[in-house]
Amino acid sequence: xxxxxxxxxxxxxxxxxxxxxxxxxxxxxxxxxxxxxxxxxxxxxxxxxxxxxxxxxxxxxxxxxxxxxxxxxxxxxxxxxxxxxxxxxxxxxxxxxxxxxxxxxxxxxxxxxxxxxxxxxxxxxxxxxxxxxxxxxxxxxxxxxxxxxxxxxxxxxxxxxxxxxxxxxxxxxxxxxxxxxxxxxxxxxxxxxxxxxxxxxxxxxxxxxxxxxxxxxxxxxxxxxxxxxxxxxxxxxxxxxxxxxxxxxxxxxxxxxxxxxxxxxxxxxxxxxxxxxxxxxxxxxxxxxxxxxxxxxxxxxxxxxxxxxxxxxxxxxxxxxxxxxxxxxxxxxxxxxxxxxxxxxxxxxxxxxxxxxxxxxxxxxxxxxxxxxxxxxxxxxxxxxxxx
Length: 388
What we know:
- This protein is 50% helix and 16% strand.
- The chain has eleven helices and ten strands.
- It has helices at residues 17-34, 38-44, 52-57, 75-88, 90-110, 113-125, 235-270, 283-311, 317-342, 353-363, 370-382, and strands at 130-133, 149-153, 156-167, 174-181, 184-191, 197-201, 213-224, 228-233, 272-273, 277-278.
């Protein structure tokens, strides 16, 4: 199926030529390079590593950062890119999102010039891969309780602890590991091969199968003092990285929703039932499609406005919580409705519906659960924190 886009409310008229070009080039890349292989990658439980150099050449890594080989896209352009990547698969968008928002962004924002020069150009091309080590086995929604520690030993830091649910963990050449020190929570760049540092993949996933998820172990792991990101001070720095990633998710899941909607729309027009009438002629079917396109359109408008105010420097973390929470929820609803409209065919891998549905269940949980984002929004509108 060739995808021509979903634009019920003439939202394309609010996009400029550069934004349309980024979306078109990303869409063409997805159609030509990703669509033919993503089903097999998902079924086989592997990330298609052959795509990494191409993703780098397209400028997708750290795309909304400037300098050091980065594309310098606007945040709306970046969002449209994420939308098209997740239309292929959440695992692809997640790989790009982690590389850019969770590894390149903090190096760009908090690192020394030497750290930036050493890592950012290589990460931008995909020559190097990064991962982000914050979540721990006992601390997901409460990262402030982390047990991983770093202690100073002359010109070195010694790290001990464990991280889990780490996207790209075993693929990474560098891990940004957050650890508790006597001076508070700090971020460290831990290179692959450092003694005491190991990454082990998690198996048995029924979601995000075209994505590598790992646990990281640090046992008496000695890194030089130059591994410390000097401006990354406190948990707020780590959470600022998550805000960047959540923004991309808020756009990306719209791509999954659009794909499910368009597959279902075409299916019910072509599929005949009851006196040789297309399924699309029935009222209940049309109601489902009407609900899907309504929620997608609202999500598009929300994402576009978020991108515009982010480009103006006005987007706040609580805004991003609303974007991520709403758009993931509507994408899940669209995937479920599409599965229903396709009937038994909806669970077959001939169609992308069940793959998106399974992936979105994970996307609802990571980078802040639906409940945590509800509490962020609740605190914003009441002034009262309710996390405990």
